[in-house]
């Protein structure tokens, strides 16, 4: 009997020191952050499930419907899903206390947070583009000289791409994407797949997230990140704690750790722009990025219609 109660105590302690994170963030960036957290919190384990935003959301929806959600924390590039969870009282609020943290990024009173800033803009393979002029604004991508040179991630898989689809459709109309299609734009599954093909010269231009491009530039790729003069798109990539978390105190400790000076510095090393103003900037970024907010309200109201139109246009699914 004593051994049995000892086993139960062991199980309780193990559960108390473990977290499960569901994320669409790049695993090669998430793992070092998790390791940094573990070094600061000996004995803690963090299990990570990583896939594209769409697949992560589909998995969590199924678990919620079955009454058995697994993650303590969710970190994906789709603010509209966080709004849905908040509306169903499925998120746990965390009070913003980090010095220098802009409270506007603690959404809905701290139900979910931005922990670093990610922008969608236009990446250029300068070698493949050759003597052609670089695009300076979003509508420049419609120029005939860029025919068959442009790529974009799949918005069914990438939350950042869905955000961009909605934001640019709201601004220019869906005809903008119809014109891009006529100009030969192709769709790749994800940002990592597209950025690798861009670096290899399969594309000259890509509508893509900025941080991965900076990482490839550090590795010597002939790339450049262009923030359009009419505004790069600030892509929400929040993290929040599920109300069903088995370890809410430890989950809150992880979220607050992501806002620490140590974690913010690591974000900068990974090419992200930290959310805390006093943190260092990533190499190659000076000053503020001229940005427009993601059209989250528009995406939330028109998500299925946008994806249906896009899929038909590009023969997806």
Automatic annotation (TrEMBL):
Mind listing the UniProt keywords for this protein, alphabetically?
Signal
User: Which terms does the UniProt entry file under GO BP?
Assistant: thiamine transport
Q: Could you tell me which CDD domains the record lists for this protein?
A: PBP2_Fbp_like_2 (cd13547)
Question: One short Pfam family name for this protein?
Answer: SBP_bac_6
Signal sequence span per UniProt? 1-16
Q: Which residues cross the membrane?
A: none
**Entry superkingdom:** Bacteria
Q: Name one GO molecular function term.
A: thiamine binding
Query: Which GO cellular component terms are attached?
Result: outer membrane-bounded periplasmic space
Q: What is this protein called?
A: Putative 2-aminoethylphosphonate ABC transporter, periplasmic 2-aminoethylphosphonate-binding protein
């Amino acid at each position: 009997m004593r051994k049995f109660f000892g086993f139960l105590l062991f199980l309780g302690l193990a559960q108390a020191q473990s977290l499960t994170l569901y994320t669409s963030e790049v695993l090669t960036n998430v793992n070092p952050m998790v390791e940094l957290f573990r070094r600061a919190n000996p004995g803690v384990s963090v299990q990570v499930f990583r896939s594209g935003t769409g697949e992560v959301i589909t998995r969590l929806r199924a678990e919620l419907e079955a009454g058995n959600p697994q993650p303590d924390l969710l970190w994906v590039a789709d603010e509209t899903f966080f709004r849905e969870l908040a509306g169903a009282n499925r998120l746990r609020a965390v009070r913003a206390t980090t010095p220098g943290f802009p409270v506007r990024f603690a959404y809905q009173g701290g139900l979910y947070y931005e922990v670093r800033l990610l922008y969608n803009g236009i990446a250029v393979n300068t070698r493949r583009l050759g003597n052609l002029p670089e695009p300076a604004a979003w509508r420049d991508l419609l120029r005939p000289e860029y025919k068959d040179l442009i790529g974009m991630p799949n918005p069914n898989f990438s939350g950042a791409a869905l955000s961009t689809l909605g934001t640019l459709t709201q601004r220019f109309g869906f005809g903008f994407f119809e014109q891009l299609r006529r100009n030969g734009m192709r769709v790749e599954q994800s940002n990592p797949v597209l950025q690798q093909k861009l670096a290899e010269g399969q594309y000259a231009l890509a509508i893509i997230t900025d941080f991965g491009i900076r990482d490839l530039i550090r590795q010597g790729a002939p790339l450049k990140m262009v923030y359009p003069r009419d505004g790069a798109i600030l892509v929400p990539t929040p993290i929040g704690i599920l109300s069903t978390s088995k370890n809410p105190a430890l989950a809150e400790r992880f979220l607050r750790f992501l806002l620490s000076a140590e974690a913010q510095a690591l974000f900068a090393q990974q090419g992200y722009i930290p959310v805390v103003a006093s943190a260092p900037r990533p190499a190659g970024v000076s000053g503020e990025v001229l940005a427009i907010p993601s059209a989250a309200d528009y995406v939330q109201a028109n998500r299925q219609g946008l994806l249906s139109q896009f899929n038909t246009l590009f023969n997806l699914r």
